UniProtKB/TrEMBL annotation:
SMART domains in UniProt: WD40 (SM00320)
Keyword Cytoplasm annotated: yes
Coiled-coil regions, chain positions: none
Signal sequence annotation: none
GO biological process: mRNA splicing, via spliceosome
Entry GO CC: catalytic step 2 spliceosome; cytoplasm
Organism per entry: Blumeria graminis f. sp. tritici 96224
Protein's name according to its UniProt entry: BgtA-20226
Length: 340
């Protein structure tokens, strides 16, 4: 089995609360963007050398402050000029990266009525934004026009929409009602696949034929994106995910499947790594310091709960093609890993 890059390279500090969302920038993925419970978004360059102990970390490039509530979701445009964020404000914020100012806010009377769990760019040249909310709806917003009202509202979900994924003329939405819905916007059709447990995470393969589905039943599924058939199931002894949203991802050109562990014993957090093809556990990576913090997370019943040792989000550099990855969670630090 191929070697997995599990060497901690650096920690990105500055957040005053749990990290709920993180993503690499587009293209060469030089930067890491994080969204936190402290209502701020931070842009880091993990390659920059830290300063002496006690000095501000030089990896922090910019802080984006406009949210009044926790930041739960991030998405970056393909040209890295803009990004969108969302969370407890019930609005989608569109940001200019260079000026650190909001360009537009999508919401208001015609927007979501509860927190937004997920957001994704869509359309040609990132002309659309798609958002999924605790109000059980998916809304589509026109980025290029001056209209802040949604151009479409999708209301088929029976419970909170926890994750959305946009493709070429298609939108995927995962819900706490235990279903993944595929919307074909060209034909006006919706196809529903029943998972049976609350869905928390969605990620498509590069060829578009596979869909990685995270759910609250201690299992991650690789499904056929066209038929909804199960291709592979990922489980692990000692791995738990039945209470909180944990975002999984592919790594190393889809060689690996990765997800944080909801609860572990000992001083560190943990990320579980599976071989995508075999489904076998390839590595259990310790995340230094994550267990020192207690975080409040929203459970499937919508109630805030305390949980230690949570690594809730993972991301791989180069959208799965690079040689570096990072994770974040309860203690507010983002740990960057690679090969020694």
């Amino acid at each position: 089995m191929a070697h997995f890059p599990a060497q901690p390279l650096t920690q990105l500090l500055g957040s005053n609360g749990p990290v709920h969302a993180l993503t690499y920038s587009a293209g060469p993925s030089t930067y890491i963007l994080t969204g936190s419970a402290d209502r701020n978004i931070r842009l880091y360059n993990p390659a920059r050398t830290p300063t002496a102990t006690g000095a501000p970390p030089t990896q922090l490039i910019q802080t984006y402050a406009a949210h009044g509530y926790e930041v739960l979701a991030l998405t970056v445009s393909p040209d890295n000029s803009t990004f969108a964020s969302a969370g407890g404000d019930r609005a989608v914020f569109l940001w200019d990266v260079a000026t650190a100012l909001t360009i537009r806010r999508f919401g208001g009377p015609n927007g979501h009525s509860s927190r937004i769990n997920s957001v994704s760019f869509a359309g040609e040249a990132a002309s659309l934004l798609v958002s999924g909310s605790f109000d059980a709806s998916v809304r589509i917003w026109d980025v290029k026009s001056g209209n802040v009202k949604p151009i479409m509202v999708l209301s088929e979900a029976g419970d909170s929409v926890s994750c959305v994924l946009a493709g070429d003329g298609e939108i995927w939405a995962g819900s706490v009602d235990g279903r993944v819905r595929k919307y074909d916007l060209r034909c006006g059709k919706v196809v529903t696949d029943v998972i049976g447990s609350p869905v928390t995470s969605l990620k498509k393969t590069k060829d578009g034929r596979g869909l990685l589905v995270g759910s609250l039943d201690n299992q991650i599924r690789l499904m056929d994106a066209e038929t909804g058939g199960l291709l592979k199931s990922y489980r692990a002894e000692g791995w738990k995910n039945d209470q909180f949203r944990m975002r999984s991802c592919f790594g190393a050109r889809e060689r690996w499947v990765m997800c944080g562990n909801e609860e572990v014993e000992g001083p560190d957090g943990q990320v579980i790594v599976w071989d995508t093809l075999s489904g076998e556990v390839a590595a259990k990576v310790l995340v230094p310091g994550a267990a020192a913090a207690t975080t409040k997370r929203v459970g499937p019943d919508g109630v805030m709960k305390d949980r230690k040792n949570v690594i809730s989000c993972v991301a791989w550099k180069g959208d799965g093609k690079g040689d570096q990855w990072c994770c974040g969670g309860a203690d507010g630090a983002v740990t960057v890993f690679g090969s020694p």
